[in-house]
């Protein structure tokens, strides 16, 4: 692959998957899967395009737009759109690659993809963002559809942007179809979709806690990074289940609370309002301490750590600090939230400390709740009907339980463990997702 440009984010995601497959007995039991790995690691299609839009001064501006249609063996391509200046092909290939296996773990008929643009919504007027969405969809609409590719939101793309994108798609194609998820509740969206990633993360970790015999979230202290949609709803669900939440963060620093005066639902409501206005946590006027330039992991003592901000937000040193502080569970609400070095620290501790270890869950399993409810939204759109919040939430709980059990049982089958070790959720989830996708590709003649 030396003829290809360096793609550090994608290479990290690829190497993380390969390392767990190599360290399992999968290739011993089924050596033909090495061929499948070569094929599944290359996207089916990569679309790049120019986005020209007009700012409020009537001047033309240009950005790069992308859609990586990675794998459709299990269903239409499915994955978010990200509007952020750091967006490039490496980032989107990493996200799309992860999405393939994440979507497989939901048990739903959805493939994997990712897209977006290097457009920065910060500092732009609502009118400029709307005009960018229209220009972006002018090209993207040629490549997506309800049975082809169904994007959703991601960083920089909230329900408001989904609405503008959907309106532009409808105007371009003259079709009302479930081509985007995360839509408004009164025009095709699903109840529980905004909450789904955060709620699903907490449901997944609750199974981890129960499996180890440590009860539930009741009485646990939890550190959360990020302050967007995922972090907000994860925090609210933790509080609802009786946990104490002691941190949130943004790109500029961390909000640190004490166990005596923890973060409350009222705090989260204020923070959510700041995020809507694209303001920083430095504008939060409350009782908690804001520490600029840090992430929360070295400033708290917790039972559970939930990184919910962005990729590579837990380093090797921060992983060691979490273990030293007594943390017992870490699960990624963000995609690839931990560096490979951090994962190695967690996995080494899991193997050496048995039932006293920290237990790590990768994002492709732990944060699959968002895309799972997006898949449920697609089902509701196909039926031209809506399910109640209770129905969707119950289905979400079932999907997260199945993803957890699948990871546990697959790890037991393919990964040799010592006496008293917790199963490797990273290995089990990687293998389970990979095998499901590879088997479908085999049935469809993509490899033989």
UniProtKB/TrEMBL annotation:
CDD domains in UniProt: NAD_bind_2_Glu_DH
GO MF, one example: glutamate dehydrogenase (NADP+) activity
Protein's GO biological process: glutamate biosynthetic process
Active site: 114 (proton donor)
Domain Glutamate/phenylalanine/leucine/valine/L-tryptophan dehydrogenase C-terminal: 190-445
Reaction catalysed by this enzyme: L-glutamate + NADP(+) + H2O = 2-oxoglutarate + NH4(+) + NADPH + H(+)
Keywords: NAD, NADP, Nucleotide-binding, Oxidoreductase
Record's GO cellular component terms: cytosol
Tagged with keyword Electron transport: no
Signal peptide: none
Site (Important for catalysis): 154
Annotated TM spans: none
A Pfam family: ELFV_dehydrog
Superkingdom of source: Eukaryota
The keyword Nucleotide-binding is annotated on this UniProt entry: yes
Chain residues that bind substrate: 78, 99, 102, 153, 374
Record family assignment: Belongs to the Glu/Leu/Phe/Val dehydrogenases family.
Subunit structure as annotated in this protein's UniProt entry: Homohexamer.
Name the record gives this protein: Glutamate dehydrogenase
Source organism: Venustampulla echinocandica
